[in-house]
Amino acid sequence: MKKIFIIGGAASMMINFRKEFIARLAGQKFKIYCLAGGYDDISRGRIEELGATALDYKLNSKGLNPLKDVIAVYDLIRLIKKYQPDIVFSFFVKPVIFGTIAARLARVPRIVGMLEGLGGAFTLHKNGPSAKTKFIKFIQILLYKLSLPLLDKLILLNSDDKKDLVGRYKIGVKSVEILGGIGVDLAKFKYSRAPAKPVSFIFVARLLAEKGVFEYLRAAKIIKQKYKEVKFYILGSFDETNPFGLKKRHLDMYLNDGIVIYPGFVDNVDEWIAGSSVFVLPSYREGVPRSTQEAMAIGRAVITTDSAGCKETVLDGLNGFLVPPYEYEALVQKMEYFIQNPGAINKMGLESRRIAEGKFDVHKANDRLLKMVLGD
User: CA-CA distance, 7 to 87, in Å (whole number)?
Assistant: First the structure.
């Protein structure tokens, strides 16, 4: 029985983003080890239910301490030598970088990495990058140049990321394949007709500038002045340590004025999307956003940006609209279109579902991913 290490960041991400793939591997009779940080009894049990073994390791997927990263690499080498996997498959930025280095030093026969986006340092903000962002990007490119050539295969979600890594930054990799979206469970995210009386918009993402949260808020404020019955929902977590993050006191101003509705943490995002008319993600850059795929599966028209990753989800004018990043005025214009043409909401939403069935079925995506990882 072949053995595979799947190396990710947090345990929650391993379950939320890889559970169908893990189950697919288990059906192929692989011995599967899922390496992540922050396992508890519940998440460890969920991994075991999928047919895999949960292993803790020390990499902090968001930390910037190089000494801790070196320690984490040695910890990974120890685990790899102990379990002797035939394949190491890592996903997300830091697990790909350091998991790849550890796997090569431990002489793993096949090493595959998947970058679901290049990282926040590669996202261009309207006013340009800060000095800290420039430094992080410089270090990240160096680490990419060190680690990515060690992969047997690099998997990306969109061709723009390939153009940056291979073209612009001249990072040599043996083999690159484009997966597209990682997909969603179309049976879980079922189609439903969108409510359109009143028209409502929903934003689902981390509350960061790069996700377009400030453009969404500005557009909402303008629309509410003219169309008081329209509702605006916002779902996502704060990151108070991020200099580009939305602060709670800033959001409170919009809440107190009745401009947006923020329910806090929810574990039923699909129900909130189903209760909304139009999905909005004005992000500056993505891999291929999972939240948009979920909204499309549910049958929601989408407003998103004509930027890397986001533009993979919308055929402009068919299932929604593409707007330039940073431009809240363009958001206002497209939101107003749906308010004035409510019949377009379900017409475009049905097209979203059709596109999701063709492009974002998680089982079809995992069939492609399995071939890429195994090299078949």
Answer: 11
Strand order of the β-sheet with 200-204 is 231-235, 200-204, 278-281, 301-305, 320-323
The C-alpha R_g of the chain, in whole angstroms, comes to 21
pLDDT confidence of residue 376:
66
Whole-model pTM above 0.90?
A: yes
- Of the listed ranges 82-96, 127-141, 267-281, the least confidently predicted one is 127-141
Place of tokens 């009143």: 198
User: Is the CB of residue 32 less than 8 Å from the CB of residue 53?
Assistant: yes
For residue 35, what are the β-bridge partners? 7, 55
Instruction: Give the separation between CA 351 and CA 183, rounded to whole angstroms.
Output: 17
For residue 134, is pLDDT > 90?
A: no
Helix (H, G, I), strand (E, B) or coil at 263: coil
Tens of pLDDT, residues 314-329: 999 999 999 999 999 9
What residue type is 272 in one-letter code? W
Say if residues 122 and 285 touch (Cβ distance below 8 Å): yes
